[in-house]
Write a structure and sequence with these properties.
19% strand; 268 residues; three-stranded mixed β-sheet; alpha/beta; four-stranded parallel β-sheet
Length: 268
């Protein structure tokens, strides 16, 4: 069973605030994602300040802003090779966006594609990144679990894959495969450029048109896998509230399910 260590390194949200969110994240994973994507159920543990994450756990880390993430930009795998999801609490608050929806977004996508190595091919031959919340990202598509707002997500049917449910997304807003709703976006492999390009839905927030935030999933997917690193040390509490992971070593990488093996440049 996957275990998620929830780590609060933010100065703008308390552990008590995050403790209110965690049960909804676990419920969404274990109920909605398990039903739609047949992922394995997971457990979430909010760690006390300064505690070391247990071995073989993925991390959900709450940080203040993208400047802080620069200190983590190359630490894309835990010391055990598991994945890290990052939520920028101060940046979200500055732009009036929901902390719980953002955390849900990251967790849903980490559940489906933990190593950012999965993509699916459409009938025309184009490859689409397995980022299941991006096409339905806007806040109007969110839903509530126990009074906590969480992100909508697309089902396998969105990628034109076999699926028990007739719905293309959890909330039923999408009407066909590869449809990107207003305010959403998706990442498509650009064969001419040899890189990922962003396909935008109508009315996308200007924030999402900018260069991806350092350490975000969009940033990591665009970065060559050869620039990913695996930490060699335990988590430590630093005076500036960063996560210190000294002496990184390059991470091993490879293709995951339904994805052809990629060359170093990251092609599908």
């Amino acid at each position: 069973m996957p275990r998620i260590s929830v780590i609060n390194e933010s100065s703008v949200v308390s552990d008590a605030d995050i403790a209110l969110i965690v049960p909804a994240l676990q419920a969404q994973w274990n109920n909605d994602l398990v039903a739609s994507w047949q992922v394995e159920a997971a457990t979430f543990d909010l760690l006390p300040t300064g505690a070391t994450p247990p071995p073989q756990t993925s991390w959900l880390v709450f940080l203040d802003d993208t400047d802080q993430a620069n200190k983590l930009a190359y630490h894309d795998l835990t010391n055990d090779g598991s994945s890290i999801a990052k939520v920028f609490a101060k940046s979200l608050a500055d732009h009036g966006q929901s902390l719980s929806v953002a955390a849900s977004h990251e967790i849903c996508e980490m559940a489906i594609d933990p190593k950012l190595s999965t993509s699916y091919q459409d009938p025309s031959g184009s490859w689409w990144a397995a980022e299941i919340c991006d096409p339905v990202e806007a806040d109007q598509y969110k839903y509530s679990i126990g009074g906590v707002w969480v992100s909508d997500f697309v089902t396998p049917r969105w990628f034109d894959l076999p699926c028990d449910s007739p719905a293309f997304d959890k909330q039923g807003f999408v009407h066909r495969s590869f449809e990107i709703l207003a305010g959403g976006y998706a990442q498509q492999w650009d064969t001419a450029k040899g890189d990922w390009s962003q396909v935008n839905g109508f009315g996308l927030s200007p924030l999402k048109l900018l260069v991806p935030a350092a350490g975000s999933r969009r940033d990591r997917r665009r970065r060559k896998r050869s620039l990913w690193f695996r930490s060699q040390a335990i988590r430590e509490k630093a005076p500036d509230h960063s996560i210190v992971i000294p002496s990184p070593a390059k991470a091993k990488h490879g293709a995951s399910r339904n994805t052809p093996a990629r060359p170093a440049a990251g092609k599908p």
